[in-house]
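This week, think about what follows.
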Amino acid sequence: MMLGFLLGRAGVKTVVLEKHGDFLRDFRGDTVHPSTLNVMDELGLLDAFLKLPHQKVSRFGAQFGEERVQVADFSHLPGRGRFIALMPQWDFLNFLADQGKRYPAFSVLMNAEATSLIEESGRVVGVHATIDGKPQEIRADLIVGADGRHSTVRASAGFDVKVLGAPMDVLWFRLSHKPTDSAETMGRFDRGSILVMLDRGDYWQCAYVIAKGSADSLKAAGIEQFRARIVALMPFLADRVQELETVEDLKLLTVGVERLDIWWKPGLLCIGDAAHTMSPIGGVGVNIAVQDAVAAANILAVPLREGRLQDADLQAVQARRLWPVRVTQAIQVFLQNRMIAPMLAGERPLHPPLLVRLLDRFALLRRLPARVLGLGVQPEHVKIHSA
């Protein structure tokens, strides 16, 4: 959606296919980081964007055993985006789609699912799609696979996926947020258990991190045992865990960290999770995808508008974005293997690691993880102008 908006804004005729009739998919990434807020500001959309319902996270804390620590402080970042905005992804997507209506070159087709690629003479020239239940061909100078971690486009292209692995999965659920609750987004790390809670205004969106492949056994133990685990981690939730009626209220997110060695072929480019599936650590996935879109638009808009797109342009997008993706995934894999896996296995002592204790003690240091988490290792800026 972001790439389509940027290209349409630049005068490139662009069609976005959305296979559902709306964007109301629950438990999608909805942490909008400063890097994305700054992009919205560069587009002149930030003030309107922030009128949508959201919660602001300027600082992030965690609890290890019974010890609370402060980890990151976003309030000193450059630009106007000095916080993380917690916003449902469907609101973000609807906002971009509505703003895009100003540009005749941009359009969105709902109930439109790409099912396979059309290739001629070694080049991708379009997609077979089902639109409102009817088969149709859509041809274009460039097809972009931005269809997520289970990408149909990626599979149809035959791209090889490099699996970096993850020792964990996540169970998502929600519990009501009461006026007396803290408004702080928080995480609780304990032996064998990790719980992250995102303040969504009238409810907490909760992520219970589990060892890879253990969801079935945990659910088999029953909802009562799961409720007891949650109360042991966050006692203030004792008055509302009954809202979890059955184990069916726990939605499994299978975590994987993967990426393509090659993101493109003639006439085709993959971006976002279709090119590199991120771990949920840090909630960076949607923001890395937005950065991909900005870089792709910067590089591709003029060649597409002038009808002179070359393979070298697609290669340039991957070259621009591969390094920050590799670095981000390396950080995620390091944290998975060195902190999360030992904690889930019950091997980690119930106190913060040394680095976390230093962050808590020295406020100035908390700006460093905030910069890496909030802006990424290579922030992208909008360089193309409206047509």
Notes: The first helix runs from residue 2 to 9. The first strand starts at residue 14 and ends at 17. Residues 168-211+213-253 form one domain.
